[in-house]
């Protein structure tokens, strides 16, 4: 089985090709350019370096949300385009699940923390039995205080990762009552290889969709939608 995976849900853009139990190639960049500038050239470079015939792919995996609204749209549009052009199915991987799988095999709980702005985070809580991931708290958009409180109630040591760690490190350090660590640099942001490996299991379980069916999962309203609803409430008031 061969899968092309795409993750542009956060500040990092990442592309990977995994075949069975081998990572054939991965290209991840965390820089100032937008995903619309980087994602397609990254895919093109990986395909060129691997001398990959895209028609040999079994599926396209994509980090399907939550995350940056713009990033998710770019990733989804790219995955849909490849799916339609190649007539391949898409595999939708929850963004927070994919991020958590960076720490597959961890002996402590894993808590991804993505900065969702407005003092909120996209987060969840996971544990591993070997490399089998179990969801303790499903991905959600909550205040940093809420997830830290739940971790304290859970009572197990935890490892944090994600772009929200830098933003909320001081809060975590002050309020987290269990033993905790922050994941190292090579594991603390989105990696398409983790998305691809999770996608293997999804594919075997038949958890696929067509390119036409795919929609990002934003988990919450965009800023424009929130402002529109607020304006409507004021107008009605």
From TrEMBL:
* GO CC, alphabetical: cytosol
The record, for Pfam families, names: TsaD
SUPFAM superfamilies, per the entry = Actin-like ATPase domain
Q: Where are the transmembrane segments?
A: none
Q: Provide one Gene Ontology biological process annotation.
A: tRNA threonylcarbamoyladenosine modification
Q: Which InterPro entries match?
A: ATPase_NBD (IPR043129), Gcp-like_dom (IPR000905), T6A_TsaB (IPR022496)
Every Gcp-like domain range:
27-226
List the NCBIfam families hit by this protein, alphabetically. Answer: T6A_YeaZ
Write down what this protein is called: Universal bacterial protein YeaZ
Q: Which organism is it from?
A: Eubacterium plexicaudatum ASF492
């Amino acid at each position: 089985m061969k899968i092309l995976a795409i993750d542009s849900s956060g500040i990092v853009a990442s592309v990977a090709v995994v075949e069975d139990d081998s990572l054939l190639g991965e290209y991840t960049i965390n820089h100032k350019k937008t995903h619309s500038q980087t994602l397609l050239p990254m895919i093109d470079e990986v395909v060129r370096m691997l001398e990959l015939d895209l028609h040999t792919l079994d599926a396209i995996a994509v980090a399907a949300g939550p995350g940056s609204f713009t990033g998710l749209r770019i990733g989804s549009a790219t995955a849909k385009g490849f799916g339609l052009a190649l007539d391949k199915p898409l595999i939708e991987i929850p963004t927070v699940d994919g991020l958590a799988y960076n720490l597959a095999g961890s002996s402590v709980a894993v808590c991804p923390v993505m900065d969702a702005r407005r003092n909120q985070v996209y987060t969840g809580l996971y544990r591993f039995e070997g490399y089998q991931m179990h969801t303790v708290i499903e991905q959600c958009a909550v205040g940093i205080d809420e997830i830290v409180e739940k971790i304290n109630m859970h009572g197990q040591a935890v490892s944090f990762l994600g772009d929200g760690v830098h933003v909320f490190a001081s809060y975590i350090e002050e309020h987290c009552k269990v033993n905790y660590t922050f994941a190292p640099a090579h594991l603390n942001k989105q990696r398409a290889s983790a998305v691809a490996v999770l996608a293997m299991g999804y594919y075997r379980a038949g958890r696929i969709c067509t390119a036409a069916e795919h929609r990002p999962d934003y988990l919450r309203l965009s800023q424009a939608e929130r402002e529109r609803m607020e304006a409507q409430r004021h107008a009605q008031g």
